[in-house]
Amino acid sequence: MSESAITEVTRTSGPRKVVFVECAAAMGGVQFSTLYLAQHLDRARWNPIVVCPEAGDLTETCRRLNIQTHVLEQLTLRSTSFSIGNDVRLPNPAAWLWDVVALFIAARRLARFLRQTKPNLVVTKGLFPHFYGGLAARQSGIPCIWHVQDFISERFKGLYRRAFGLAARLLPDHIIADGAAIGRQLNAVADRSSVILNGVDVKVFRPGGDGTRLREELGLPAGAIVIGHVGRMTPWKGQHYLLEAFAPVARAVPNAYLVFVGDPVFDTDSYQNKLLDLTAKLGLEDRVRFAGYRHDLPEVLAAMDVFAFTSVEKDTSPLTLLSAMAAGLPIVAFDIEGVRELIDADEQLLLVKTRAVDALAESLLRLLSDQELRRRLSLAARRQVESRFSLERHVMSIEQVFLKLAERSRPALGKPFPAVADRQLANGRTVAKHSLHP
User: What was the pLDDT predicted at 77?
Assistant: First the structure.
């Protein structure tokens, strides 16, 4: 639909309500994408409402930005598998049963909220919300979009993926995937899906920021060359590879420092503790800083000279990487598909074979020793984001899908949910993890 057509429809019908059903209120990449989208949708066309399972950073930020929010409490999900030894995982049938009950309870409560709110569109974010949000939207006769931003587990010979694929055929009207790899997992519903990569605000994330205050706060000396990483403290983000690669860099470059920004968010702190132990084992306590979770990402990136992106799987159009590119940082990254689909040419960043610690160290040393290379990478990365991954471009692509779906209606399915008393929710705690992955 053309821009003029969208304007004409909006002028005659007014803003449409869009309910975003979030999996958590703690801020991870999914939640930032929700915030960016809700914040930058054209308010003359769309009225965003963010629904979370608990209060937290996302709800507080939305309220500060005058974005309507609602807390819809849920029962705590249980792990759908359990470990035997280090490498063997088995299904947990009792947990499956519990989670199904939790799903129907959540769907009943959301359906009640949707009947009260009467939105034009429901957008689900996170695996559990895809299921209960899809059920609630279908019961209420409201078009539903799944915004899928994580891979589906292939464990147990693809059981999880097949279950997700079946639900994808039955529940959503459309699916938006934020990476080509996720799109392939949803090939069975390719006629009702789109791949739309993420975008960032190039006015907020831009070269030339001032990171002096943060450097002072972290106790970094004048003249320090800072290698930075931003992301959740979880094994698939690969921070331990970066730590190991930094050891020879620290020996070769006396003024090089490594800064990790982030915390476990949805996980326990076991991996973060392992990183702290590894830092001590490598004798890097004086050269490594753990800054924790920060709200001031533009300033964080401004305090860095080089950005390292070390995810070993899963990440698709990662917002931290796009933000670093927009900030004009020279970047070294593991060569995963989610990174490759952001670039048109290798000169936009340095790619390293995934998990190759020695190659990562060599690339970091190369960047630190070659100022002209850093300048070229910085300019190329910034141009790439400006041309392909601006937030305006991303929002416009999403709005096109929203408008097509918001024009539709579908018959409600009546009341398909078990009559589970809502009082059961009083004993439940909010969901701390946002998927049915084991």
Answer: 76
Q: Is the dihedral of CA 361, 365, 368, 371 positive or negative?
A: negative
Whole-angstrom Cα distance, residue 124 to residue 132? 9
190: tokens are 């390719």
Of 199, 432, 179, 200, the residue nearest 313 (C-alpha): 179
For 167-177, the pLDDT digits (tens) are 999 999 999 99
| Cβ 422 vs Cβ 110: under 8 Å | no
Angstrom CA distances, 233 to 206, 248, 263, stand at: 25, 22, 5
Q: How confident is the model at residue 233 (pLDDT cuts 50, 70, 90)?
A: very high
What average pLDDT is seen over the chain? 88
Q: Is the Cβ–Cβ distance between 225 and 306 less than 8 Å?
A: yes
The per-residue pLDDT for 364 is: 98
Question: Does residue 327 contact residue 303 with C-beta atoms inside 8 Å?
Answer: no
pLDDT score for 379: 97
Q: Give Cα separations from 141 to 95, 118, 215, 409 (angstroms).
A: 30, 10, 53, 6
Q: How far apart are CA 113 and CA 303, in angstroms?
A: 44
Dihedral sign from CA coordinates of 353, 356, 358, 360: positive
Q: Which residue has the higher pLDDT, 90 or 330?
A: 330
Q: Which residues contact 43 (CB under 8 A, 6 or more apart)?
A: 15
Count of residues making up the chain: 438
Q: 117: burial class by Cβ within 10 Å (0-12, 13-18, 19+)?
A: middle
- Do β-strands 68-71 and 306-309 pair in parallel, antiparallel, or remain unpaired? unpaired
Phi, psi of 262 (to 5 degrees): 140, 170
Which H or E run contains 249? Answer: helix 239-252
Helix spans in 67-117 (H)? 93-117
- Residue type (1 letter), 276: L
